[in-house]
Amino acid sequence: KKERILMQVRYSGPYRESTGLGRASFLNIQCLQEAGVEVVPNYLQYEPNRIVEPPISCDISGNPDIHIMHGIPREFALIKENTGSANYRIGYVVWETLKWPDEYVQAINDHCNEIWVPSSFCKVGAVESGVKTQIRVVPHAVDLPSFSGLEKTKAREDLDIPEDEFVFYSILHWQERKNPKGLLTSYMRSF
Question: Can you give the pTM of this predicted structure?
Answer without folding.
Answer: 0.77
